[in-house]
Amino acid sequence: MRLLFVTPNPPSPIRVRPYQLARALTARGHRLTLAFPVGGAAEAADAAALAEAGFPIISAPIGPARRLLSLAGAALGSRPLQAGWAWQPRLLALLRQAIARAAADDDPYPLAHVEHLRGAPYGLALQAHLPVAWDSVDCISALFDQTRRHGPSLKSRLLAAAELPATRRYERRLLRRFRAIAVSSPVDRAALLSLLPGGRPDAFDRQNADAEPAIAVIPNGVDLVAFQPPTAPREPATILFSGKLGYHANESAALDLAGLVMPRVWAARPDARLVLAGAQPSAALLSLAAGDPERITVTGQVPHLAPWLQGATVAAAPLRYGVGIQNKVLEAMACATPVVATPAAAQALGVQDGRDILLADDPQQLAAAILTLLDDPARAAALGGAGRAYVQAHHSWDAAAAGFERLYGGTASPLPTSPRWGEEK
Predict the structure, then answer these.
(1) Gyration radius (Cα) of the chain, Å
(2) Which domains does the chain have, with CATH numbers?
(3) pTM
(4) Which residues lie below 8 Å from residue 104, measured CB to CB, with a gap of 6+?
(5) Which residue ranges in the chain fall short of pLDDT 70?
(6) What pLDDT is stored for residue 423 in this prediction?
(7) Which residues contact 58 (CB under 8 A, 6 or more apart)?
């Protein structure tokens, strides 16, 4: 199948779901054209890497002025700011040209795959031309609902509270408009369905279709070649937290780990070290490392995360809140690194507490679980081995690509437009 694969940012090893799906779908024989706006030098480098890897690219720059206009347009149209973040009219024009040119060449695109709420406006606009499968990934309104209550700063809580009503309305609208929808976890599927009147798809009064939306759960996979058990000994008494540290849920978890959990660990194991590995660490996290450089390391962005996971004694994921599947947990498990996590970090997984992972609810319990693994290497090795086996059995990218193939097969003709649910501007 020839696919138009539209994402709100260039796929990259950091934006793991679209990146690995594009690779897996290509390996299964599909021909993908990747399309996305490009904001800044880092994204331009990601786009260049994709082109070098052989992917046809459709892209348009989105600078600060264009982004500001798109955000203002979303706000004025009573849409969430997320719906304007990646909107670039020039990219839509290029997509329409590509669709027309492919049809004229008798090699049409039968389908567009569109990712995330930020990419959804392109999907709405493209429905006049071809069927669209929307990969929601997460339920963003559920994320905002959690952030307004548990965010790490007053700013993050206020922004989430302000965005929440419009985001709920918009996600409900997207359920009306797309027939084929994917999410990464059963938790996010339930959260999306809860937006429907009565919380049930059969209670939903659809305006423009005679069938309910198909919401498929397609979990993230793990690159089991890149993330594998170490061949060298692990660093002693090293606790690792990984993820994009500029993301509010990760920042909150890292602050809790450093400020609430590790002091309890250090009371029993003063030799323990904490490593926070990920891009865009906040000033608060950097100041922690500056204040205690012997025990806390903040790496910033790293070229490859696997060596850090392979070197750690324990991977910790003390998230207060979150949506979707936590790649940080899966990647650590794939490296046979024993994981200690809160239930919120593992809610989308089918792991068994005590066998595949250790779950704990509060700082005291998290510290106790970490100390258990530091003091019992055999237990740590057994937990890590079980985690690796779980990922091998349940989280391959090839299986995820096969899930999307089934979703593509369920798409129908484009939904008819209407004055209310028409093309995004």
Answers:
(1) 22
(2) 2-220+398-409 (3.40.50.2000), 238-394 (3.40.50.2000)
(3) 0.85
(4) none
(5) 198-213, 412-425
(6) 34
(7) 33, 34, 35, 36, 91, 94, 95, 98
